[in-house]
Amino acid sequence: MMFTAVAVPVPPSLYPVQPARPIERSFAFGPFVLKPGRQLLLNQGVPARIGGRAFDLLTALVERPGEIVSKRELLARAWPETFVGEGNLKVNIASLRRVLDEAVEAPRYIATVTGRGYRFIADVRC
């Protein structure tokens, strides 16, 4: 027995539906735009060089502007399932402050809450 393939047109209503693209979150503050889904920080439209851990810390802080984010929460966010000391957190916060061109003595973006954690203090536009 022999079969012949025949092309049958498929009506447009039966084409697979493309899933909707997820909405890309972005956070703007000062001259910066943070795009967590793309692992991107822009400074006046130009990509800024930022390490992965510092990026995770910035995202955690920017998602909760004005709130104290504890050291424990930040460590869990940047180093999931890994035990690291607070020294790693301090080093990465310092790196983040350099990227944001910020001094500890005159914070514009990240305030240290002694003994507790950090707070993002700039206005954030979503």
Q: Descriptors for this entry?
A:
single chain, alpha+beta, Arc Repressor Mutant, subunit A, four-stranded antiparallel β-sheet, 3 helices, 7 strands
Can you offer a commentary on this structure?
Keywords: DNA-binding. This is OmpR/PhoB-type domain-containing protein. InterPro entries: OmpR/PhoB-type_DNA-bd, Sig_transdc_resp-reg_C-effctor, WH-like_DNA-bd_sf. Residues 24-122 form the OmpR/PhoB-type domain. Residues 24-122 bind DNA. It is a single chain. With 126 residues, the protein is an alpha+beta fold. The protein has a single domain (25-120), classed as Arc Repressor Mutant, subunit A (Orthogonal Bundle). Helices cover 26% and strands 19% of the residues. It has 3 helices and 7 strands; from the N terminus they run E-E-E-E-H-E-H-H-E-E. The strands form 2 sheets. A 4-stranded antiparallel sheet has the order 1-2-3-4, with helices on one face. A 3-stranded antiparallel sheet has the order 5-7-6. The model has no long low-confidence stretch (mean pLDDT 89).
